[in-house]
Write a structure and sequence with these properties.
The protein has a domain at 256-455: Rossmann fold. It is built from 15 helices and 17 strands. It has helices at 11-22, 41-46, 84-100, 110-124, 128-131, 135-146, 153-157, 195-209, 256-262, 267-278, 293-302, 346-353, 370-379, 393-401, 409-412, and strands at residues 48-55, 61-67, 73-78, 161-166, 172-177, 185-191, 219-223, 229-233, 243-247, 282-287, 310-314, 326-330, 360-363, 383-389, 417-426, 429-440, 450-455. It has a 9-stranded mixed beta sheet. Helix 13 (370-379) links the parallel strand 13 and strand 14. Helix 3 (84-100) packs across helix 4 and helix 4 crosses helix 6. The relative contact order is 0.08.
């Protein structure tokens, strides 16, 4: 059923809108929607351009990596220049879509649907001929703000970006770029000026996940529709105001051949991990933040026999396995009507995996009681694998044996191997490497004996 052409019924409204746009008539309006465009001409012309490439919707934006005189590199977004007609038409088109369009979640391809809405709205409002070729620019901004991620849509669509974050309003949004990873965070020319704008933007990011964030519950960690990991906080708990961090993940998981090609692991290391899991052993993949632990875990699990069942337990969906018998489980938070907790945590799900007859049990980011259940599963003959935050073999054993984990010596010896990932600066680039593999010795002895299988070079 075709939706009613609301504006077309009232020709005098179309005529009024046209007179307002052409300046024949003036009226003071406070539009609900304001077009924000990011331009970086001043920075680009005064700095040294290290790299430039197209990004964003229809590749209409340009990204520049610009180095200033002090050696700082910035990520500069140059969006298409909106003409006067685009700026005037934007709030009208956005209002039209807001009042007439059904929820976009109903459509398999919301971007295509909104493209049709923009053309239809321009015709109904009588501004299509005024816009002319500028309708492509208008389309860019409407799609960016309706379907995309608004302020951060360009870095979200940029496959070279690993992470996006802002610590508060009035400060540059920052990104982590694969090509200049040795610099960690890069400032951008994207700035969300006020706390009101930042809070609205954070709430919109929360809506993308299908969950909510509020004054009563001012923080949220959840996956986006593309499976990126969002960590959001409102000003109630943020000293500098509302904030967000987006950890991006590749659309498709990397195969083992890609990691070997990059030098992250060698073919010998890959074979070792494969044999380890197929022979009912346990593997801890250890490293500090952003060293590639989850990527390596996904690769290791994807190599086991295709007829095996694999149970994975995660807070945020990150793993993606090709096995028909892959059984992913995710935690849940919530409250009952009486205020009681309906949370289902890693510990609960790890216990559940023992009833699912899986050959392999995997837990991402072990940090609590679930570690004990995982090691118990390893002791009962399951293959097991997990990621764990630590910087070395000594730190790993210290964390496992100290509260709150408090795992005893006899259970530590159930572990088969500990693989340690590192992020290194190598030949002017930031690289991730599997640096060491240790095997835990099963013989009872004082302390926790282990042997270094091999320390691999960069």
């Amino acid at each position: 059923m075709r939706k009613p052409r609301i504006h077309a019924r009232f020709k005098h409204w179309r005529q009024l809108i046209r007179r307002l746009l052409t300046g024949e008539e003036r009226i003071v309006l406070t539009p609900r929607y304001r077009l924000v465009s990011f331009r970086g001409y001043g920075v680009i012309t005064t700095g040294k351009i290290l790299r430039s490439y197209r990004a964003g919707i229809d590749n209409m934006a340009v990204v520049y990596l610009v180095e200033d005189e002090e050696g700082y590199v910035r990520y500069i977004v140059e969006e298409p220049e909106p003409s006067e007609w685009v700026r005037k038409s934007y709030p009208l088109i956005m209002d039209h879509i807001a009042y007439t369009a059904p929820p976009l979640e109903r459509y398999e391809d919301p971007e295509n649907y909104v493209r049709g809405l923009v053309h239809e709205a321009a015709e109904e409002l009588g501004v299509a001929d005024l816009l002319g070729p500028d309708i492509r620019v208008l389309m860019y901004y409407v799609l960016r703000d309706v379907v995309g991620y608004g302020y951060i849509d360009v870095p979200m669509r940029d496959p070279r970006i690993e992470e996006i974050g802002a610590t508060g309003p009035g400060q540059p949004v920052q990104v982590v770029h694969k090509d200049v990873g040795w610099l960690t965070w890069l400032d951008t020319n994207i700035v969300i000026e006020s706390e009101d704008e930042m809070a609205r933007f954070v709430q919109r990011l929360a809506q993308k996940t299908g969950r909510y964030i509020s004054v009563a519950k001012p923080m949220l960690e959840a996956p986006s529709p593309e499976k990126h990991r969002l960590a959001l906080a409102l000003s109630e708990i943020g000293g500098k105001g509302s904030s967000f961090v987006v950890r991006k993940h590749p659309a498709e998981p990397y195969p083992v051949t890609r990691l070997v090609e990059w030098g992250t692991i060698s073919s010998l290391e890959a074979a070792y991990l494969w044999l380890l899991l197929e022979n009912y052993s346990s593997l801890f993949i250890v490293g500090v933040m952003a060293t590639g632990k989850t990527t390596l875990l996904n690769v290791a699990l994807s190599m086991v026999r295709p007829d095996w069942h694999i149970c994975t337990v995660e807070d945020t969906p990150e793993l993606k396995l090709p096995h028909p018998g892959w059984h992913p489980l995710y935690t849940r938070t919530g409250l009952g009507l009486g205020g009681g907790s309906l949370d289902i945590g890693l510990f609960d799900l790890t216990k559940l995996t023992l009833r699912l007859r899986c050959q392999v049990i995997s837990v991402s980011e072990v940090r609590g009681e679930e570690a004990k259940v995982l090691i118990q599963a390893a002791a009962t003959g399951h293959s097991s694998a997990c990621t764990f935050h630590a910087g070395s073999i000594a730190e790993t054993i210290t964390r496992l044996t100290a509260p709150p984990l408090s795992i005893g010596p006899s259970y530590i010896r159930v572990l088969s191997a500990i693989a340690i990932m590192q992020r290194l600066h190598y030949r002017g680039k930031a690289v991730r490497r599997l640096r060491w593999i240790y095997e835990i010795l099963p013989e009872p002895a004082n302390g926790f004996p282990y042997v270094e299988v091999k320390a691999f070079g960069v």
